[in-house]
Ethylmalonyl-CoA decarboxylase
Amino acid sequence: MISIGLKKIRPILQFNLRLYQSLSKSTLNEAIEKLKPLKGGHISLVKDEASGIATITLEHAEKKNALSGQMMVEFADIVEDLKLWESGKGLILRGSGDTFCSGGDLNTVKNINNPCDGLLMSTLMHSTLNQLYCLPLVTVTLVHGKAIGGGSELTTATDFRVFSNTGETSFVQGKMGVVTGWGGGTRLVHLLGPRLALYLMTSCKKVSSEEALNIGLSDSTVPVDSRYEDTLNWLHQLIKHDSEVINAMKNIVIGARNLTLEESFLNERTLFSPLWGGPANMRALKKNVKHK
Ligand SMILES: CCCC(=O)SCCNC(=O)CCNC(=O)[C@H](O)C(C)(C)COP(=O)(O)OP(=O)(O)OC[C@H]1O[C@@H](n2cnc3c(N)ncnc32)[C@H](O)[C@@H]1OP(=O)(O)O
């Protein structure tokens, strides 16, 4: 009976996680062809095998880390790479220089300024950021300086947000005559609830690090000068377990977000059973751990 359950759950979860990829493969390829030639900046990925923490850095400081077409394609490749990182536990998303991200690169935007190309860009960014949102890692955005428009949307694609004290986010899309194009509206509703999400989108209000902490958008504030080290330390506290345990915890959360209640419980059982009596469990039992 159990083996039937195990066989059944994997396709359900995988179907949900691959939804964007499988439904729009040709659209994604078309988007990549369109966006790749629109140059400017780049995105780097560093994977620290010792700690299991990866860092993605937006590197377009001279344009306040605006995302060019080329960077959008690089972002998609980086997420693909991270999906295959079996020993990974955590991820930090950050910007270089004094701004987290000023949104879409206005030079790229000018080249794709029509509804068809808008849909292509939006499909690629939805695919990338929703796959980032579903990585089996504990993910955090370090919001240092401004996150504007699409930059604010990026901050919603991780599990947590740590703001430097100069961090600030604003969903300015309305002022630009558009709405969230990178899936940030939906994720913001999941994060803050419909009322607050609608307020932030319609008001285009700047949310400071202090306000972000008060409304539950930020999980911690760190001083500017030690922002990266402090974010690393903050993340380290959450990823002390084996990577199998971390990955399973995150997959429970992903399942609960995407599946029906019954499917999610089946997913949780399926994730639990191989850990029960597994190496981490046996080590803990041998240590006779007391939880005082
Ligand atoms: C689906 C995506 C939808 C969206 O993202 S909508 C939002 C699009 N983003 C924007 O409209 C941001 C516009 N920029 C600004 O508000 C300001 O530049 C910003 C970010 C507050 C920074 O202000 P300052 O610190 O005074 O710096 P600055 O204005 O002199 O900018 C320095 C250089 O960066 C450039 N820059 C800033 N944001 C950019 C962007 N998004 N795309 C392309 N270039 C951008 C800016 O033009 C300037 O370049 P340059 O030095 O004059 O060559």
Q: What stands out?
A: Residues 1-12 have pLDDT under 50 and may be disordered. The CA atoms of residues 199 and 205 lie 8 Å apart. Strands lie at 42-48, 53-59, 90-95, 138-143, 146-148, 160-164, 168-170, 207-208, 220-222.
